[in-house]
Amino acid sequence: xxxxxxxxxxxxxxxxxxxxxxxxxxxxxxxxxxxxxxxxxxxxxxxxxxxxxxxxxxxxxxxxxxxxxxxxxxxxxxxxxxxxxxxxxxxxxxxxxxxxxxxxxxxxxxxxxxxxxxxxxxxxxxxxxxxxxxxxxxxxxxxxxxxxxxxxxxxxxxxxxxxxxxxxxxxxxxxxxxxxxxxxxxxxxxxxxxxxxxxxxxxxxxxxxxxxxxxxxxxxxxxxxxxxxxxxxxxxxxxxxxxxxxxxxxxxxxxxxxxxxxxxxxxxxxxxxxxxxxxxxxxxxxxxxxxxxxxxxxxxxxxxxxxxxxxxxxxxxxxxxxxxxxxxxxxxxxxxxxxxxxxxxxxxxxxxxxx
Amino acid sequence: xxxxxxxxxxxxxxxxxxxxxxxxxxxxxxxxxxxxxxxxxxxxxxxxxxxxxxxxxxxxxxxxxxxxxxxxxxxxxxxxxxxxxxxxxxxxxxxxxxxxxxxxxxxxxxxxxxxxxxxxxxxxxxxxxxxxxxxxxxxxxxxxxxxxxxxxxxxxxxxxxxxxxxxxxxxxxxxxxxxxxxxxxxxxxxxxxxxxxxxxxxxxxxxxxxxxxxxxxxxxxxxxxxxxxxxxxxxxxxxxxxxxxxxxxxxxxxxxxxxxxxxxxxxxxxxxxxxxxxxxxxxxxxxxxxxxxxxxxxxxxxxxxxxxxxxxxxxxxxxxxxxxxxxxxxxxxxxxxxxxxxxxxxxxxxxxxxxxxxxx
Amino acid sequence: xxxxxxxxxxxxxxxxxxxxxxxxxxxxxxxxxxxxxxxxxxxxxxxxxxxxxxxxxxxxxxxxxxxxxxxxxxxxxxxxxxxxxxxxxxxxxxxxxxxxxxxxxxxxxxxxxxxxxxxxxxxxxxxxxxxxxxxxxxxxxxxxxxxxxxxxxxxxxxxxxxxxxxxxxxxxxxxxxxxxxxxxxxxxxxxxxxxxxxxxxxxxxxxxxxxxxxxxxxxxxxxxxxxxxxxxxxxxxxxxxxxxxxxxxxxxxxxxxxxxxxxxxxxxxxxxxxx
Lengths: 355, 360, 275
What we know:
heterotrimer; A: alpha/beta; eight-stranded mixed sheet; four-stranded antiparallel sheet; C: mainly alpha; 13 helices; 72% helix; 0% strand; elongated
């Protein structure tokens, strides 16, 4: 499989794009013959307590997220630090326990307190690629160990086929020849190579869903694209669903079919990548777009940029829309209660009172 | 300032004297028993008053070492092997530690990546300002406080944080505070090394805006070092691209953006997905940056270069080729003057530490 | 591993340890007499028959020194081994498992930390029935585990949240596997350093207890030699040799463990190395 095969896409039409329509009045219901969603999340909420006894505060890391992901689709989850995007994937991976809400993978709901066995079944379907290649591999274990472990744990191949399967995976992530990498330790690998091992490890379980938590943000610029392209190729060839978490709007645009924007633990806008990028509706999305480097648009001319305040304090969120304190178009009803989802097009929806 | 500047001071830069001039700077790191690793190789750079010069490159290209060496902040095992640095006409590398301390903060200031952690966690912000100013001879305490508060306002941090401890500020505010500290003595040159990389994009943009306003108001020159070329294109006047310790291309920002000449610059430009427009597949750069202890002969970029000329690039060091005013690149592709009408003249490659350069 | 063997501190410490180890092993061969043989005239000076003279009770000093190495080494290593096991268990259960288990174990650790070890040691040694090396090992272990347990707990906590441990969870590894294969190996440096630290503590504390007469005064150990020396006023009588020599041996053995402790620390944490 050539990683440099030319591959173009036009915007838009790619077959049924499932977007959650729960809670939006008047929207059409899911058709019965459409494929089963790989991931369905309802009202997912996560909170933490910080501080010493007596001075404790609650961090609302993620509030009531509803999301659906169709098979073979890439969802770009965009937000700044504190937006809840990492919390989201960690909760779906069940590295953190949700405070409320439901997670369904391939139709099966994950129980409140899953047994070890149930958790293992979940992990056979949902795998994660970690952000920091320098700490996500055990420094004391070889590449071979890291990639073979999930093959063993999830009984993907019989014992005697193990070596072949490991070689195969290493080839697929571009670590060729595999023999050269099998016995290496992480310190003998570059950042990009380590991340490839991380990807191989995630693929070993043969999951239906890949959660990529900012997989390129700690890599050099010239390596980022190759990793992103690798992920896209693998996703395509295996029809994987992927959630690609990033703070970089341009990266999300490159990788994703659908983009979802998060702010202060809430999902605020969601739609096809081209639409969200082309016509961002939510004031926060617009702010993000303005802030991002864009030489095409902003060459030379100094631009007026107003961040309008500070990032939200997750222990002290205002009632109503969390973006209200910074919003240039704020109205009284924004502070009163959290806006409902409004559909601005058949596939794009916004959680904003303006629409 | 009560502390006297060295007697050889020639004062602020004029239109004709650049603020900072780096000539052929070569810097290496040497540990006992191991061969010297040359991290910066014969780099030339100049910064004028009020100008923003960007240095772009990936990790390991030597940009941070370049900045440290050029501001006299390089510690062993790093050492300057050859070249010179002139600040307002003065030889910076010849200054003693004491003289350098006078120059730092009052004439040249440096802000590092994640500088927010440079603030002393057990001292109030106000005291850190006063400390720094006192060390540079500002005796009048009230005057110092007033100036510090003024700076605080300029960086748009609410005054109530002036009396606070660093941990009570957010990351973005801390970075602004560090910038304020760097500017409080009104230096002529500000060197920033990845000042916004650890920050969110919205905060980053606000800080860059603020820097721009300050520059317009206070008139200092800026050296901005980052790996984020798309950002640099927006904010810099001129950009230098570094690879494996060499400056491989330099041009005014617009020219670099519209017509990069060096294959590495071209690849780097393409490595950033565009924010808008049609989605097309982009290609990264194959391979790894070279090991600086074992550089290949000829062009350092050749092993990864999609346009390498077999027989030439891997053997012979590329020459410096000048295009229009202030735009040059170090590459063999433009060896023949007649092939490229834009090429105005060719220089020899020896400025850049490589022997055996040819003129095409 | 290589870094360890090229470390000068490590080599020095190892050399001393090996030296004493050999002496202890080959004691019957090296010592000219039985160490408990008191048939000799006390306080004899250095001679060809008694290379280092005799003690106040009439034992051959050299033989006692040689056999004493066995006791010190055994106490040092055995105590360190027990302490290390306890510390590891505490650290893992407390740090990795967390929750209420952590609260309980941590409180216990803190209690042991707060009680002054020296006082406790003396009291235990004085009032426990039975004397001798076994008892000493037991009480040294009981008073010496707390500090290292806290360190290991901190390490376990920090490791628990590392991405590669989370990745192991995602890869379907069971809790026990993760502890055995990922957590403990990554704590190895601290573990080994703690081992040598504990051995150092044990050697010195044992000598201290015996010097105070709280050990079995009929045992052949360096500490007991010191006891006899002190009790029979060897100093005043000018017989300083057999006070000095056991002390020197204790010092050397302790230093060996100390050096190894530093060396392992340096090797495990590259930032401590001086180039």
